[in-house]
Design a protein that fits this description.
With about 300 residues, the chain is of the alpha/beta class. The chain folds into 2 domains: about 180 residues, Rossmann fold; about 100 residues, Rossmann fold (3-Layer(aba) Sandwich). The protein has 9 helices and 10 strands. A 6-stranded mixed beta sheet has the order 1-2-10-7-8-9, with helices on both faces. Strand 7, helix 7 and strand 8 form a beta-alpha-beta unit. The longest helix has 17 residues. It starts with 15 loop residues before the first strand and ends in a 15-residue tail after the last strand.
């Protein structure tokens, strides 16, 4: 009997596409190419699909969890959506803790996958959500996968995302740009790329002072993700909320690339890198799609 792929098999192997208009004249003059890795093409709509499947699948392999268990996770949105999708496929109860000010679309999508939500005060941010998740685990209410400390998060990017980028650029990549949240993507991809070519520059996008960009964080020291390896990142570039939101609108209207705000922040950083380099192949992560930000007012009504 013929076997067919499942939704799990649709995760990864996302396209890499060249920007055609934004910064085109300057990039052409300098011999640069700027490429976006379309992680919004994953089935639950973001780069976090990779980590969600990796964390659940490997926890099952170790016997840490089994179908029917309750999984708990603090999330700003994309990881929660991805975990809700994988939990639905594999038969887990998913309990997600999320700051109340994040977009309506994200909360609705999590619920559509069958997850239960606990909304925390905006003032506490993700730090409070993470603390609450740990308290609930201590109370015996479930198992936390902990995307911030779980090595299965960066591991999947070392095993899949990095190799895909290397292959898609035929090894020509010179700069890799990623928004930094849990830091799983940048940590795993940088490890792989550095093994192929130690000269590849790794650039992280972080929010400028006062900016609140979903998916991009600058953590207080005590909340720094345990999976983060600072030595794997060559440069941190600060991006303002205004610049990220403006770039999101430009990506949609000039490139036909409807992406989220953190993806646009990474694109803005990639353009800053391109403005100072020559003969560079710059790859940035388009970590999700713009349709889960429509209620924020970033895009024209």
């Amino acid at each position: 009997m013929k076997t067919y792929p499942t939704i799990e098999d649709a995760i990864g192997r996302t396209p890499l596409v060249a920007l055609q208009r934004i910064g085109a004249a300057d990039n052409q003059a300098r011999g640069n190419v700027v490429l976006g890795k379309l992680e919004g093409n994953n089935p639950a709509g973001s780069v976090k699909d990779r980590a969600a499947l990796s964390m659940i699948r490997r926890a099952e392999e170790r016997g840490t969890i089994r179908p029917g268990d309750t999984l708990i996770e603090a999330t700003s949105g994309n990881t929660g959506i991805a975990l809700a999708m994988v939990a639905a496929v594999k038969g887990y109860r998913m309990l997600l803790i999320m700051p109340e000010d994040l977009s309506v679309e994200r909360a609705q999508t999590m619920k559509a996958y069958g997850a239960e939500l606990i909304l925390t005060p905006r003032s506490g941010g993700m730090e409070y959500a993470r603390d609450l998740a740990e308290q609930m685990v201590a109370q015996g209410r479930g198992v936390v996968l902990d995307q911030f400390a779980n090595e299965d998060n960066p591991r999947i990017h070392y095993e899949t995302t990095g190799p895909e980028i290397w292959e898609q650029t035929s090894g020509r990549i010179t700069h890799f740009v990623s928004a930094m949240g849990t830091t799983g993507t940048i940590t795993g991809v940088s490890r792989f790329l550095r093994e192929q070519n130690p000269g590849v520059r790794i650039i992280g996008a972080q929010p400028a002072e006062g900016s609140r960009i979903p998916g991009i964080r600058k953590w207080p020291e005590e909340y720094q993700p345990k999976i983060y390896r600072p030595q794997m990142v060559d440069e941190l570039v600060l991006v303002s909320q205004d610049d990220a939101e403006d770039m999101a609108r430009r990506m949609a209207s000039e490139e036909g690339l409807f992406a989220g705000i953190s993806a646009a922040g990474a694109c803005w950083v990639a353009q800053q890198i391109a403005a100072r380099e020559q003969d560079a192949t710059i790859v940035f992560v388009v970590c999700d799609r713009g349709d889960r930000y429509l209620s924020t007012g970033v895009f024209p009504a």
